[in-house]
Specification:
Elements lengths: L4 E10 L7 E11 L4 E5 L6 H8 L7 E8 L2 E2 L5 H11 E5 L10 H10 L5 H14 L15 H13 L5 E5 L7 H16 L4 E6 L10 E6 L2 E6 L4 H14 L7 H13 L5 H15 L5 H9 L11 H30 L6 H11 L9 H15 L5 H9 L11 H12 L5 H9 L1
Helix pairs in contact: 3-4, 3-5, 4-5, 7-11, 8-9, 8-15, 8-16, 9-10, 10-11, 11-12, 12-13, 13-14, 14-15
This protein binds adenosine-5'-diphosphate and magnesium ion.
Length: about 425
């Protein structure tokens, strides 16, 4: 049987030819079969929403190369009418922001998509009420969206997505604005739509735990579809997700290399490349416990001619202090990944606090309680690989009013680099040394 949706070599640019050009999808090919529950997973900005728009036929104008096939037919060959029909009855989309129309009733929001199909008002209302009943929100039919709680509004959004009875339901981060109870309800309902109604579910999320029902996971990063996994059981999914978080922090380089590089950039700014190379060598030795802390400090101090790095004593002592701190925090990170491997939903409260205290070690500015909490959140999100190093620096720099930390640009990038220095896997460090 033909896949219900197939993408072949899709490339898509935003602002093509302008300085702000973004290559948002890079040669993406994939297949989704009828009745499958699949998910796209990856950090913010990796192209998840864009790929959804492409596969629901909403970005056909922007696709620069590649094909979108629906049931084996290229949508470029669709007539205008066929494309409109596919968009309106082929797929239903649930958005994170709910996207409800504020000025009309809940019932009218849900029935509106049927109007495009020329269904009479009366029938629209009857069908709409049925959907509201299915989602347990019938009593609110005549209210305005703003009069409902977030969880209820999201159910209106789901009812609306079901309005034209589409065989494919797409959810773009449907849980982002919900508490965990409501998030669970949404996931249960999606599972029901998949198992009972046989609908194809396409879930987009950056929260690993919400992948639990997906049987095909597309991992994305920087517009690239990195790989596809088809976990058979719950345990497989948990493992797949934590493995991903462990390895994906920087897929283009050996993690050990990344760490030694980012550390030597951090610590030896302004030194010659020979000194930096030798420093990286000893650093890897120390990070993999091939030499102990005292020896490390001694070779940092030893002159370059005698085989050392040739730093002055004070600098050697300082760097050695920093490295010992990093090694301790790397140990914390290893524990975190071991916990996440067992249970991707593990809370990381104490670990994040520990890392935060270390991060703030040499910071001279004042950090209030609210900033500390926010910092813990950012650290947790980075540990879970929900956000990138770049995002971390951005949020640190963002004002407190905008839910950032309000650090200077310079302090933000230094602190983000410091955090990165503890995130690479130690197995990989050992491997990098043997290479
Ligand atoms: P995700 O949903 O994974 O967060 P998106 O698909 O929204 O990612 O975005 C992918 C990339 O394309 C990002 O770098 C984003 O900034 C960029 N982008 C998304 N929409 C637009 C747009 N309308 N104009 C310009 N750039 C965009
Ligand atoms: Mg998105």
């Amino acid at each position: 049987m033909e896949p219900i949706i197939k993408l072949e070599g899709i490339n898509l640019y935003y602002d093509q030819g302008k300085p702000t050009e973004v290559w948002a999808l890079r040669n993406v090919s994939l297949e989704i079969n009828k009745g499958e529950y699949c998910a796209f997973f990856g950090p913010s900005g990796c192209g998840k929403t864009t790929v959804l728009y492409v596969l629901s036929g909403m970005e056909s104008e922007r696709v620069t190369s590649g094909k979108v096939l629906v049931n084996g037919r290229d949508i470029a060959q669709f007539s205008k009418r066929e494309l409109a029909v596919f968009r309106q009855i082929g797929v239903g989309i649930v958005f994170q922001q709910f996207n409800l129309i504020p000025s009309i009733s809940v019932l009218d929001n849900v029935s509106l998509p049927m109007a495009f199909l020329g269904i009479s008002l009366e029938r629209r209302r009857t069908e709409g009420m049925k959907l509201l009943e299915r989602l347990n929100i019938a009593p609110y039919a005549n209210r305005l969206p703003a009069e409902l709680s977030g969880g209820q509004q999201q159910r209106v959004g789901i009812a609306r997505a079901l309005a034209n009875n589409p065989p494919i339901i797409i959810c773009d981060e449907p849980l982002g604005n919900l508490d965990s109870e409501n998030a669970n309800k949404v996931l249960e309902f999606m599972k029901e739509l998949n198992v009972k109604d046989g609908r194809t579910i396409i879930m987009v999320t950056h929260e690993a735990w919400s992948l639990r029902d997906a049987r095909k996971i597309f991992y994305m990063k920087d517009g690239v579809l990195l790989r596809v996994e088809e976990p058979k059981e719950q345990g497989d999914i948990a493992q797949a997700v934590s493995k991903l978080m462990y390895n994906q922090l920087n897929p283009n380089m050996e993690p050990g290399q990344v760490m030694a590089k980012s550390l030597s950039n951090l610590l030896l700014r302004g030194y010659s490349s020979d000194e930096v190379k030798r420093f990286e060598f000893f650093l890897l030795q120390r990070l993999t416990d091939h030499i102990d802390g005292d020896v490390f400090q001694e070779v940092l101090d030893r002159s370059y001619r005698r085989g050392g790095v040739g730093l002055w004593k004070g600098k050697a002592a300082k760097i050695s202090f920093i490295i010992e701190g990093i090694m301790e925090q790397r140990h914390t990170v290893e524990q975190v990944y071991a916990m996440l491997e067992k249970n991707p939903e593990s809370p990381l409260v104490e670990e994040a606090q520990k890392i935060r205290r270390w991060l703030l070690g040499e910071y001279r500015g004042k950090i209030d309680e609210q900033q500390q909490l926010r910092l813990d959140e950012i650290i947790t999100e980075r540990l879970r690989n929900i956000i990138t190093a770049h995002n971390v620096a951005q949020v640190l720099n963002l004002s407190k009013k905008n839910f950032g930390i309000g650090l200077s640009m310079r302090a933000s990038s230094q602190m983000s680099e410091k955090l990165e220095s503890i995130l690479a896997g130690s197995d990989a460090v050992t491997k990098a040394i043997k290479l």
